[in-house]
Write a structure and sequence with these properties.
14 strands, Rossmann fold, Fe-only Hydrogenase (Larger Subunit), Chain L, domain 3, 33% helix, single chain, 13 helices, 511 residues, 5-stranded mixed β-sheet, alpha/beta
């Protein structure tokens, strides 16, 4: 008998009260003191003998938000003032002042990287094609003073390739362990993945990795795992998200190509999700040497539309500009995507790649349900995909979207009852296409119909396998010194950290 979590609501209403507890220093000497507010709004503690001491203002940084429960939901109204279009405006203004004052050494190269889900959302709202949106966004941003506009479908190909290789490393190690335990049946049998089983490529880092491998592209899911389930972090893929890989491309490869330092580039991501702001702020993605982040600022799809309004810009009648390099296109400048779900296609690509690399099976197409068995879950946000050989399952993958499904998945892994080798995990119900930063439909359009419409626009873009993206493959040689190099692992992979939450004054927390 098992317990199934259901009827859970992912939404937590935004609040003006930050839930991060502030340490209160109390002593017997100040218990009779009073608080005084002066005309300027300053707070002072006044002792019995009349001595006034100015009280410090509590400081909450963006990094503190990583310890806030708000970042683990799909709530879309959380405002993070240090990452907004206003910051982009400020940089562009300073650039203009530097040019006008002939201080070109103070000018920053401004780069915009746009997620394909954001392009699909804008295309749905304004009844445009994704290619029209991409070209008109390029024109819009460059008219403001931006130098380069890229598409993160390009960096996602890096993420897909690296994730697939990482999974194969883990699975081969898992196979070796299974073969030692059961040399007769070898690896062609169904088995549950034990919590204490290790998996990886055999080196020290990979020996700590485990199965099932869990997708790492969703920062809301990562924050949740780090805060509440530290035991699960070894299961999480070490491959960076497309946003952060694009950060490495821009701040390392592009900076070298342009002959400038990384801190002379201001890199902005246009994303479907507010949690991407938190991901960009992680210390792991900050260069101590150059004092700069890989992604300096993240603005959401909705914030881009606000920029349209503030600039009196009409995207429906706008001029268009040619697409820059590092945008996934054909020779005819046609936008391309990777096959699979609108959450990145991780499940589909990794399964097809593994079927070929491990089992020498070609022709598998998860999208078309060719060569695999697809089983719907108890709800639309969960499904299982199985690859069989001679009627025996050899690969079992799943997708789990939304916290109802995530909690059930975590429970299975914790109880050694998970049958999966890989799970595509996303915090938002319906996945990234329904990210909290996406555009909302008119009131007369049901939200479910809107999500389906945006998803259809996304999927109507032609697909190209990451293994056929010549620009990405060439960069593995030119930039990363090869596929298995230390440099590629340094720039394309990351690590995670369990967050210890200490409530200094739990009664002060407002829920």
């Amino acid at each position: 008998m098992s317990v199934i979590l259901k009827d859970l609501n992912d939404y937590i209403a935004p609040s003006q009260a930050c839930i991060k507890p502030v340490e209160v220093n109390k002593t017997s000497d100040n218990k009779n003191n009073v608080i005084k507010i002066d005309d300027s709004g300053g707070y002072y503690e006044v002792s019995l003998d009349g001595i006034e001491t100015k009280l410090q203002t509590a400081q909450i940084t963006l990094d503190d938000c990583l310890a806030c429960s708000g970042c683990i939901t799909s709530a879309e109204s959380v405002l993070i003032t240090m990452q907004s279009q206003e910051e982009l405006y400020n940089v562009l203004k300073l650039n203009k002042e530097a040019i006008d004052g002939n201080k070109l050494d103070e000018k920053k190269t401004v780069v915009i990287s746009i997620a394909p889900q954001s392009i699909a959302s804008i295309a749905a709202k304004y009844d445009l094609t994704p290619l029209q949106v991409a070209k008109r966004l390029t024109y819009f941003f460059k008219s403001l003073g931006v130098h380069y506009v890229f598409d993160t479908s390009f960096s996602r190909d890096f993420s897909l390739l690296e994730s697939a290789r990482e999974f194969v490393e883990r699975f081969r190690f898992y196979q070796e362990k299974q073969q030692k335990k059961d040399p007769v049946n070898n690896n062609v049998k169904s088995t549950r993945i034990k919590r204490n089983g290790t998996s990886g490529g055999g080196d020290e880092a990979m020996s700590e990795a485990k199965l099932p491998m869990l997708a790492s592209a969703c920062p809301g899911w990562i924050c949740y795992a780090e805060k509440t389930h530290g035991f699960i972090l070894p299961y999480v893929s070490q491959t960076k998200s497309p946003q952060q890989i694009m950060g490495s491309v821009v701040k390392d490869y592009l900076a070298n190509k342009l002959g400038i330092k990384p801190n002379n580039i201001y890199h902005v991501g246009v994303m479907m999700c507010y949690d991407k702001k938190l991901e960009a702020s992680r210390p792991d993605f900050f260069s101590e040497e150059y004092q700069t982040r890989d992604v300096d600022c993240v603005i959401t799809t909705g914030e881009v539309v606000k920029m349209f309004e503030e600039s009196d810009y009409d995207i429906k009648t706008s001029e268009e500009s040619s697409l820059d390099n590092f945008t996934k296109t054909s020779q005819e400048e046609e936008l391309l995507r990777s096959s699979g779900s609108a959450s990145g296609g991780y499940l589909e690509f990794i399964l097809e790649y593994t079927a070929r690399e491990i089992f020498n099976i070609t022709g598998v197409d998860v999208d078309k349900e060719q060569g695999v068995i697809v089983k719907a879950g108890r709800n639309k946000d969960f499904k299982e995909i199985t690859l069989e050989i001679d009627g025996k399952p050899v690969l079992k993958f799943a997708s789990a979207y939304g916290f109802r499904n995530i909690q059930n998945l975590v429970r299975k892994i914790k109880s050694n009852n998970s049958p999966y080798h890989y799970v595509e995990v996303m915090a938002c119900p319906s996945g990234c296409i329904n990210g909290g930063g996406q555009l909302k439909p008119d009131e007369k359009i049901p939200i479910k119909d809107w999500i389906l419409h945006v998803n259809d626009i996304y999927r109507n873009v032609n697909s190209l396998s990451p293994e056929k993206n010549d620009v990405v493959l060439n960069l593995y040689s030119e930039w990363l010194d090869g596929i298995e190099s230390e440099k590629s692992k340094k720039l394309l992979r990351t690590q995670y950290h369990a967050v210890e939450t200490t409530l200094v004054n739990p009664l002060a927390v407002k829920w």
